[in-house]
Design goal:
- The protein has 394 residues and is of the alpha/beta class.
- The chain has two domains: 269 residues, Aminopeptidase (3-Layer(aba) Sandwich); 114 residues, Alpha-Beta Plaits, CATH 3.30.70.
- The protein is 35% helix and 26% strand.
- Helix 1 runs antiparallel to helix 3, helix 5 runs antiparallel to helix 6 and helix 7 packs across helix 9.
- The protein is elongated.
- The two termini are 32 Å apart.
């Protein structure tokens, strides 16, 4: 049987499995029941499975040869969001929801394991299944890499996928080059001199200075970055003061910076710092920037993107493979790509007729479940193609 035929046979079971994960979501580093279920499913397929970094799981399926080792990665954590879909399979854990599709990613990787377990006699290599905790905290991939998840046996190539509600179910987005942005976090402290709100002339108002910083930093993107080069600077928190009529001594801000180009990313701290310090100084205040690089950009090498597209076409036909626009969202799959060649795909899960149109992290996020067998099949097929085309290395 072909990969696609096996996936179609597994379809209803995979949907049921996804609903189980969706009903019982767990937050980052709390994925105890989730990882237990993953191990049960893997072991039922004859895939050896063990724990890594506490709540992570690694499965190993050996074929007729040891090398190459192809990894399939899925993230398993949920978000602190109260679900509002009204679905019969909605989260049973109040305030916790799979609002980014990690339940789908997990199910697709398990589906790929089920498919490949039936075809292990045709596998000229080994497949390592990596189920990663804490993607939402940008921490899981780093932790697993430090724990040696890419070693013993050493991984040669890694693949992963992510739901994309902007793409219709039945399609898979494959893009060469940058797909998801580098993610950095900024913390800005603004110091002034507090006092009575009725006597502002006797103070140095850090709230006014912080507001000026937020507005002025938008000029970094609009006037210092090439208009054809994507970049985002956004603030998400603004904290200062304790009473409505008291000007405080200090204001604290935090935000995010998103870029694709490594050279631009390297220059962003200096550009931001110059604006912050000078704007604050002009208002008699003092500003300080702390810049934390979190994740590099997800960028797919051309040969692996071509291999992934071939897998999509072989499983679902020419029209199923689409070239998506990149997203300024980030993904810690990029951490693996820093260590080994890797390719990240977008699984179309949208369906306007069913009202499945809500974006990632929405309390109404859902997926067209008919996409799940396709995701499993593509992961299995690209693993087989990668094994067969591997020329050595690492």
């Amino acid at each position: 049987m072909t990969v696609g035929e096996i996936a179609r046979q597994l379809g209803l079971g995979l949907i049921t499995l996804r609903r189980h994960f969706h009903q019982y979501p767990e937050l980052s580093f709390q994925e105890v029941a989730t990882s237990r279920k993953i191990r049960e499913v893997l072991e039922a397929q004859g895939v050896s499975a063990g724990a890594v970094a506490e709540t992570g799981v690694v499965g190993l399926l050996r074929g007729v040869r040891e090398r190459p080792v192809i990894a399939i990665r899925a993230d398993i954590d949920a978000l602190p969001i109260q679900e509002e879909t009204g679905a019969e399979y909605a989260s049973r854990h109040p305030g916790v929801m799979h609002a980014c599709g990690h339940d789908v990613h997990t199910t697709c990787a398990l589906g790929a394991a089920m498919i490949l377990a039936r075809l292990r006699g045709e596998m000229p290599g080994t497949v390592k299944f990596i189920f990663q905790p804490a993607e939402e905290k940008n921490a899981g991939a780093k932790m697993l890499v430090e724990a040696g998840v890419l070693e013993d046996p050493p991984v040669d190539i890694i693949f992963g996928l992510h739901t994309q509600p902007a793409l219709p179910a039945g399609t898979v987005g494959v893009k060469e080059g940058p797909l998801m942005a580098a993610v950095d976090t900024i913390f800005v402290d603004v110091w002034g001199r507090g006092g009575h709100g009725a006597l502002p002339h006797r103070t140095v108002d850090p709230i006014l200075a912080a507001c000026a910083v937020v507005v002025s930093l938008q000029s970094v993107v609009s006037r210092n970055v090439d208009p054809l080069e994507p970049a985002v600077v956004s603030f998400g928190t603004f904290h200062g003061g304790t009473a409505n009529n008291v000007i405080p001594d200090k204001v604290e801000l935090s935000g995010t910076v998103r870029t694709f180009d490594p050279a631009l990313r390297e220059h962003m701290p200096g550009m931001l710092r110059r604006v912050i310090e000078n704007v604050c100084a002009g208002l008699g205040a003092r500003g300080e920037l702390r810049y934390r690089p979190d994740l590099p950009a997800v960028s797919n090498p051309a040969p692996l993107a071509a291999l992934a597209r071939q897998a999509v076409v072989e499983v679902a036909g020419e029209e199923a493979g689409v070239v998506p626009a990149p997203s300024m969202g980030g993904e810690d799959f990029a951490i693996y790509q820093q260590k080994v060649p890797g390719c990240f795909l977008w699984l179309g899960v949208g369906n306007t007729e069913k009202g499945i149109v809500h974006p990632w992290h929405s309390p109404r996020f859902d997926v067209d479940e008919n996409s799940i067998p396709l995701g499993a099949a593509v992961l299995a097929q690209v693993a087989l193609l990668a094994m067969k085309s591997w020329k050595g290395g690492r």
